[in-house]
C-alpha cells in the first residue's frame, strides 16, 4: 500500500477557498489528501496553528492566500508573507523537510493554479513519507563548538568593593529621597551563591553586592513589580530601581516597546561589566523554567495553553520549544538566562539564536537596540506608538 | 473506576508489607553486584542512575556497565517511577452515542537500583496520599506493587543535603526493599522486605552477621550563620525535582476522530495559573504568595492533612536548593519562618 500523506490546507475564504471551488466547477483534479480549513485571511494563520497541526499528525501544511495587493483586509497577507517564511526556516532548522510546508497565493478565479499547487505539494510530501523530525544533532554540536571557540572571559577584576559601595550609596540615596520603593540588585546567599535581592530598607541595602558571579538578569523582575491583579483596586505604584549589566539593558527597551511600564517608572543603575564567571551552561524536559526566567512574557503558559499538548512526548516538546523560541523572535536579547536556569542542561538558546539571525537578515531588526517592538510577534499588551 | 473498596484493600496490603523487618545480611563484592544487576536487567526493567548528556537521571539500563560510576543523587527523584511526569489513564472510544473507556494499567515489573534514602522516604510520603487515603490511586498502587527498590546508603552528604535535619538519615533503610551499604572492597546487603528478599540469590551470596558501618550519618550539613539570612524572594519552579510534590493536572486530548485519551501530568503550584478560578481570579497572584504556599504545604498542610505528626513532607534531598536559578534555600526560609513565629 502506498503512503497517503495527510495534508492540512489553510485557505483564505475570499480567494483560495473560492479558488478551490472554481477548480471543482471546472472539473479539474485535485488530490483528496488535502483537508481544507477555511480561514478569514492567510494572516489569520498564526505560526502556533502550523506547529500544532504538525504536532497533531499532519504530514504537510499548505497555506494559500490572496495575491499580494489583493487582500480583503489590505495587509493581512503581508503578515503571512512576513512571518511564515521565517517560521519555515525555523522548522527546517529544527529538522523538518522543506517540502512539508508551503505558502502560496491563489486568487478566486485561479482554479487551475489551485489544482496544480495542491497536486505538486501532495506529490512532494508523498515522496518524503510520514513526517518524523528531530533537531539535527549537528546544530547542537555546532553551537557547542561555537561556544567553546569563543574567548573565555579573562576576568581581571577581583576587587569589586568599589562597585559594591557605589551601588549601595546610590541605592540609599534613591530609597531615602523616596524616589523609588525598591532597589533590585544582587546579594550573596548563605551558600555563597550570588542571587537577586530586593532592598526596601537601609538594612537591606547593606546586603547588595557586585561580584564576578552576578549572572542573573534582573530586568525580568520589573514587569512583575508593575503587574496588577486582574481584580481588586489598583495599588499605587512607586518607581523601582534596578541594577543592570550592559548586556541586560536591551531587555528594558523591549519591555518599554511592549508597554509593560513607562520609562519614568524605573531607575536604571547601570554597572559596567568586565565579564562573568561561569556564565555558560538533545532536548529532554519541558518544565518551562526557562520560559519563566526570561525577562519577556510568552504565550505558552505551561499549564494553560492548549497550543501544546499536555503530555511530555517528543511532539509536545518540539512544539513547545519551537513555540517558545517563536514567541521570543525579535525580542530575545541573548542574555542566556534560559539556559542557565535549565537544570537539564538543554541548549535552549539554540533556536533563539537561529531566529535572531533570521530576523536581522530579513528585517534588519535587533532586539532591544532601540525601543521598537518585534517586527513579527504581535504585541499583546497594548499598541505601540512612536515616542510614547 | 468505581472500585474504591477492593482497590483500597489491595493497596493496604502493599503498605502493610513494609514494616516486616528482615535482618538477613550478606557481603558481596563489586563483581557479584554487577552479575546480580545484569541478571535483573535481563529479566526485568532495571532503572539506575545513568549519565544522560551531562545530567544523572534514573533511566532504564541494559546492563550494569551503563550505570553512572559515581553519583550523589540523580537530578530527578525516584517519584517518577510511580508517578510518571505524563501518564495515560485511559482511552475513550466514541462510536455514535456509545462511549467506551479502556483503562491502561502498567503491568511490567521494575527494579530501581541506587535509590538514596531521601528518595525512598519520599516514596513513603507519597504512599500516604496515593495509597493510604481514599480514594486510592490505582495507577500509583499498581506501579508501587510492581517496583522493587534497591537502596544505596550515602557515603557522604552532598553540598545541599540536609536529610538529618528533617528526621532522615543517610543510611535509613526503612523505605527500600533491599539496602546496600558500601564497605571496603564491596557491599553489605540487607533484605528489608519480603519483596527484596525474593530478589536476592539465596545460595550464591555469603551470609554475615556484621552490622553495617555508619555511613554519612555522623556528618553535618553546613548551617549558615544566623545573621546571614536575607528575606523576600520571589521566584519559581522546584516542584518537578521534589521527591514529595504530588500535584497533577488532568486533561483529555484527541488521538484520532472519535478517540481520546485522558492524560495526567505533573503540575507545579509555583505556576501562576495553578490556582486560577472561574472568572480569572488568581488567589495567589504574587510570586511571594505562591512561594509561601509551597513552604506551608511541605511543612504544615501536608503533614496535617495526612497525619504525619511532627514529621514534615521534606526529605532533605536538597534538590530544590541545587536547581533554583535564583538561589532560594529551603533551610534558610525555615529558620527565617521560625524566627518570625
Word description of this protein:
The complex is a heterodimer of chains A (388) and B (341). With 388 residues, chain A is α/β, with parallel strands linked by helices. Chain A folds into three domains: 7-128, 3-Layer(aba) Sandwich (Rossmann fold); 137-150 and 279-363, no CATH class; 161-270, no CATH class. Chain A contains 13 helices and eight strands. In chain A, β3, α3 (76-93) and β4 (101-105) form a beta-alpha-beta unit. Chain A is elongated and about 80 Å long. Chain A starts with 6 loop residues before the first strand and ends in a 25-residue tail after the last helix. Mean pLDDT of chain A is 82; it is low at 279-286 and 379-388. By secondary structure, chain B is of the alpha+beta class. In chain B, the strands form two sheets. Chain B has an eight-stranded mixed beta sheet. A four-stranded antiparallel beta sheet of chain B has the order 5-4-12-11, with no helix packed on it. In chain B, β2 (45-52) and β3 (55-60) form a beta hairpin. The longest helix of chain B is centred in the last third of the chain and has 19 residues, at 287-305. In chain B, 39% of the residues are buried. The chains are: A alpha/beta (388), B alpha+beta (341).
Amino acid at each position: 500500500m502506498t503512503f497517503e500523506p495527510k495534508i492540512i490546507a489553510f485557505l483564505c475564504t475570499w480567494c483560495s477557498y473560492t479558488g478551490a471551488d472554481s477548480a471543482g466547477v471546472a472539473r479539474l483534479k485535485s488530490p483528496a489528501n488535502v483537508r481544507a480549513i477555511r480561514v478569514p485571511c492567510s494572516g489569520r494563520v498564526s505560526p502556533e496553528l502550523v506547529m500544532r497541526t504538525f504536532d497533531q499528525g499532519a504530514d504537510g501544511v499548505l497555506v494559500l492566500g490572496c495575491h499580494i495587493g489583493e487582500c480583503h483586509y489590505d495587509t493581512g497577507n503581508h503578515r503571512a508573507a512576513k512571518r511564515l517564511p521565517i517560521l519555515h526556516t525555523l522548522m527546517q532548522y529544527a529538522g523538518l523537510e522543506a517540502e512539508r510546508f508551503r505558502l502560496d497565493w491563489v486568487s478566486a478565479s485561479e482554479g487551475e493554479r489551485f489544482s496544480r499547487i495542491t497536486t505538486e505539494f501532495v506529490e512532494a510530501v508523498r515522496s518524503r513519507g510520514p513526517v518524523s523530525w528531530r533537531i539535527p544533532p549537528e546544530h547542537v554540536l555546532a553551537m557547542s563548538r561555537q561556544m567553546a571557540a569563543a574567548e573565555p572571559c579573562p576576568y581581571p577584576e577581583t576587587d569589586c568593593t568599589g562597585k559594591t559601595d557605589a551601588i549601595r550609596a546610590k541605592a540609599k540615596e534613591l530609597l531615602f529621597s523616596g524616589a523609588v520603593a525598591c532597589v533590585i540588585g544582587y546579594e550573596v546567599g548563605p551558600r555563597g551563591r550570588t542571587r537577586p535581592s530586593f532592598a526596601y530598607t537601609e538594612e537591606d541595602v547593606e546586603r547588595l553586592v557586585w561580584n564576578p558571579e552576578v549572572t542573573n538578569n534582573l530586568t525580568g523582575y520589573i514587569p512583575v513589580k508593575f503587574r496588577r491583579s486582574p481584580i481588586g483596586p489598583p495599588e499605587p505604584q512607586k518607581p523601582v530601581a534596578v541594577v543592570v549589566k550592559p548586556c541586560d539593558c536591551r531587555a528594558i527597551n523591549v519591555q518599554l516597546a511592549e508597554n509593560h511600564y513607562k520609562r519614568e517608572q524605573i531607575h536604571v543603575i547601570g554597572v559596567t561589566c568586565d565579564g562573568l564567571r561561569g556564565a555558560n551552561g538533545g532536548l529532554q524536559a519541558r518544565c518551562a523554567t526557562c520560559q519563566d526566567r526570561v525577562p519577556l512574557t510568552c504565550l505558552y503558559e505551561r499549564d494553560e495553553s492548549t497550543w501544546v499538548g499536555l503530555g511530555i512526548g517528543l511532539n509536545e516538546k518540539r512544539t513547545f520549544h519551537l513555540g517558545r523560541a517563536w514567541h521570543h523572535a525579535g525580542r530575545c536579547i541573548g542574555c542566556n538566562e534560559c539556559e542557565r536556569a535549565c537544570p537539564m542542561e538543554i541548549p535552549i538558546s539554540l533556536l533563539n539564536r537561529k531566529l535572531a539571525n533570521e530576523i536581522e537578515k530579513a528585517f534588519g531588526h535587533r532586539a532591544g537596540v532601540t525601543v521598537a517592538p518585534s517586527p513579527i510577534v504581535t504585541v499583546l499588551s497594548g499598541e505601540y506608538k512612536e515616542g510614547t | 473506576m468505581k472500585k474504591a473498596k477492593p482497590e483500597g484493600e489491595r493497596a493496604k496490603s502493599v503498605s502493610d508489607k513494609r514494616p516486616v523487618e528482615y535482618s538477613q545480611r550478606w557481603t558481596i563484592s563489586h563483581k557479584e553486584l554487577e552479575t546480580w544487576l545484569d541478571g535483573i536487567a535481563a529479566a526485568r526493567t532495571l532503572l539506575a542512575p545513568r549519565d544522560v548528556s551531562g545530567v544523572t537521571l534514573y533511566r532504564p539500563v541494559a546492563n550494569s556497565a551503563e550505570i553512572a560510576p559515581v553519583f550523589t543523587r540523580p537530578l530527578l527523584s525516584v517519584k517518577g517511577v510511580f508517578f510518571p511526569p505524563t501518564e495515560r489513564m485511559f482511552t475513550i472510544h466514541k462510536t455514535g452515542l456509545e462511549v467506551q473507556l479502556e483503562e491502561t494499567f502498567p503491568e511490567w515489573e521494575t527494579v530501581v537500583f541506587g535509590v538514596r534514602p531521601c528518595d525512598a522516604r519520599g516514596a513513603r510520603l507519597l504512599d500516604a496520599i496515593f495509597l493510604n487515603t481514599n480514594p486510592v490511586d490505582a495507577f500509583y498502587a499498581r506501579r508501587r506493587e510492581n517496583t522493587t527498590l534497591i537502596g544505596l546508603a550515602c557515603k557522604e552528604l552532598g553540598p545541599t543535603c540536609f536529610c538529618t535535619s528533617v528526621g532522615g538519615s543517610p543510611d535509613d533503610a526503612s523505605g527500600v526493599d533491599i539496602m546496600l551499604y558500601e564497605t571496603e572492597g564491596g557491599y553489605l546487603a540487607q533484605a528489608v522486605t519480603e519483596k527484596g528478599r525474593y530478589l536476592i540469590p539465596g545460595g550464591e551470596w555469603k551470609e554475615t552477621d556484621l552490622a553495617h558501618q555508619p555511613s554519612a550519618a555522623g556528618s553535618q550539613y553546613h548551617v549558615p550563620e544566623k545573621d546571614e539570612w536575607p528575606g523576600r524572594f520571589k521566584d519559581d519552579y522546584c516542584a518537578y525535582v521534589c521527591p514529595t510534590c504530588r500535584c497533577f493536572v488532568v486533561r483529555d486530548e484527541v488521538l484520532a476522530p472519535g478517540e481520546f485519551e485522558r492524560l495526567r501530568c505533573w503540575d507545579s503550584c509555583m505556576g501562576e495559573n495553578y490556582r486560577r478560578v472561574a472568572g480569572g481570579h488568581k488567589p495567589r497572584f504574587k510570586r511571594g504568595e505562591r512561594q509561601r504556599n509551597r513552604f506551608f504545604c511541605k511543612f504544615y498542610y501536608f503533614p496535617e492533612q495526612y497525619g504525619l505528626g511532627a514529621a514534615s513532607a521534606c526529605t532533605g534531598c536538597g534538590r530544590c536548593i541545587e536547581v533554583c536559578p535564583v538561589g532560594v534555600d529551603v533551610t534558610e526560609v525555615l529558620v527565617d519562618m521560625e524566627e518570625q513565629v
